[in-house]
Amino acid sequence: MSDTVTDIEISFPERKAGGFGEAPTRRRPRAEVIFALEGGITRSCWVPPRVARIYQKQEPDVPCSYRVARDSLLALEERVCFTALTEIQSRRENSCKEAYDKLVQAGFREQSAERAIERARELKFISDTRFMTTFIEERLRRGWGKRKIELELKRRGVDPTDLDGYPERFFSVEDDLARARELLARKSVPETRPFEKLVRRLMSKGFTYDIASKAARERIACEAADDEGV
Question: What DSSP assignment string belongs to the chain?
Answer without folding.
Answer: ---EEEEEEEEPPPP----SSS--SSPPP-EEEEEEETTS-EEEEEE-HHHHHHHHHSPPPSSEEHHHHHHHHHHHHHHHHHHHHHHHHHHS---HHHHHHHHHHTT--HHHHHHHHHHHHHTTS--HHHHHHHHHHHHHHTT--HHHHHHHHHHTT--GGGSTTTTTTT--HHHHHHHHHHHHHTSPPPSSSHHHHHHHHHHHTT--HHHHHHHHHHHHHHHHHHHTT-
